Amino acid sequence: MKKTETHGRLSAYPFRWEGLENFSYPRDRDGLPLVDMGKSTGMVYNPITISQYGLFNLQHSRSSSDTAFEQARICAGWLQSNFREEWRENSPVGAWVYDFDLHFYGPKAPWISGMAQAQGISLLLRVHQVEPLQQLEQITRKAFESFLHPVSSGGVVDGFPDGSLLFEEFPTELPSRVLNGHIFGLLGIFDYAKFWQDKSAQDLFDVAIAGLKRNLNLYDTGYWNLYDLHPSRRLASPMYINVHVQLLEILSRITGEGYFLDVSRKWRSYLQNPLCRLRWLGGKTIEKIRLSL
């Protein structure tokens, strides 16, 4: 008798894009979003944008026959078709690969992103719950491998200054440590562990959560928060503070850790404080001048 596979059931993706992202991108003939990366690169398929657009549509889908689910399915199909099972020679990591250079942080093509890996996994698992996908296990397991290998070996694992685990959105020579990218990475690991009932993945999530608790204060300036821990030390935009706040609220719900909720409330208070916003505006002006020199 064939063994019956048992999977955990994932609820709707917890992050909501309303008020933060309207997905008003140009589309190809299938409705997939295209992102303009500037004159030197032009219009590209961005795995993060495609995964987010698919997750956004799933949140608004009411049945497997509606337009929103069809768009999510098309995004999942793109992820299946464009997955590279061995993106670097002799590496166990499979990935959605960026084939263009990124000017600011400096990764040179080809490169991969922990955020793309995570959100690709999250979308494929949820679409599969509605309409079974071919090669789901093979793709998601090889994508998950990126969270087990350092950047130097073709993965996305780096560290905070104290050595705690961190998953890089941008695998740069000087660690960028982008906060939202790291937390979105955690959400993908959480989904993977729950769906496949994988204890080692859950243990990885728990260790990374403990590390984030120890280092989250590094992003707090006392009146605002940083977008990353890159040497450029960029202040987050008000929009990204809202992203950080929502992500910390999600982490508090799924871990039961009140610390994340406390920090989210503190950071939200910065947005509501006119003096904090004035300091951010002055700091951002100085930052732009500093980075242009």
Distance between the termini: 69 Å
Sheet with most strands: 2 strands, antiparallel
Structural class: mainly alpha
Strand content: under 5%
What is the fold's blueprint, element by element?
Layout: E1 35-36, E2 43-44, H1 47-60, H2 67-81, H3 114-130, H4 136-144, E3 157-159, E4 165-167, H5 179-196, H6 199-215, H7 238-255, H8 258-272, H9 274-292
Antiparallel strand pairs: 1-2, 3-4
Task: Describe, in plain words, how this protein is organized in 3D.
The protein has 293 residues and is mostly helical. The chain has 2 domains: 11-219, Glycosyltransferase (Alpha/alpha barrel); 222-293, no CATH class. 48% of the residues lie in helices and 3% in strands. It contains 9 helices and 4 strands, in the order ββααααββααααα. The protein has a two-stranded antiparallel sheet with strand order 1-2. It has a two-stranded antiparallel ribbon with strand order 3-4. A hairpin with a 6-residue loop joins β1 and β2 (43-44). α1 (47-60) runs antiparallel to α2, α2 crosses α3 and α5 (179-196) runs antiparallel to α6 (199-215). The radius of gyration is 19 Å and the shape is globular.
Briefly characterize the structure.
This protein is mostly helical. 48% of the residues lie in helices and 3% in strands.
What attributes does this structure have?
293 residues; mainly alpha; Glycosyltransferase; two-stranded antiparallel sheet; two-stranded antiparallel ribbon; 9 helices; 4 strands; globular
